[in-house]
Amino acid sequence: MIIARTFEELRAARATLGSIGFVPTMGALHEGHLSLIEAAKTAGLPVAASIFVNPTQFGPREDFARYPRDEAGDLAKLEEAGCALAWLPTADIMYPPHDSTHIQMAGPALHWEGASRPGHFNGVATVVAKLFGQLRPQAAYFGEKDWQQVQVVSRMVADLVLPVEIVPVPTVREADGLALSSRNRYLTAEERRAAPRLYATLTHAAQEIVAGKEVAATLHHARHELAQAGMVPDYVALVHAQSLEAVSGLVHPARLIAAAKLGHVRLLDNLPVG
Ligand code: PAF
Hints:
Rossmann fold
């Protein structure tokens, strides 16, 4: 595996590879990230992964400084997973002095994570567009756990007419249903036991909606269930799966999305409905 940290190293490495599949990450890699690499390999593409903890997608009171970092461990995992290239840019490379161009997202970025984390998706879209420009991948792989992020990136790629295919990859879960996330490591033992209730609650709510139960009442009950499990629900919503607009009845395609705080950890999850 080639490790590139400068533009010169990236250019030299990129010249040795033809079409590539790309997996952007912020490091602290887990099985979810490895499933993205596996998906790219299955498509028959050499895989490039990036590790960059992107400051512009964190709010001032969020966990940028505390975000888990384990470069040596991550590189070993990428190598073992069969990555051809690891791109580890510095903040100066991604945001050069006098940097003045930022993407401002509307549409699917406006609600939910976008409302609770102002500026978050502008930061994601900006860094992802820069990474696409640097790596020029044929396809890029994103985990469905961050469903709204996948829709935002897809919208950005369509709007900027970027020549890259966005490939969503199903969420990887622990045996008890908890969606894998780099931040799960911050859960206490007690919180970890409660955390799978998010997936269980969404699964039950999705079944109820498909069975014809009133959506508003089902969502209200789901929020109550999460609170009972010790969580502080931010939102539980039924949305159009691509626009992320809230819907009051079953549409196609629909997604049930939720975010809840458990201790200091913000848990996210989502499911298709119908
Ligand atoms: O999902 C992530 O890890 C990040 O949002 C991404 C896509 C790597 C952009 O920084």
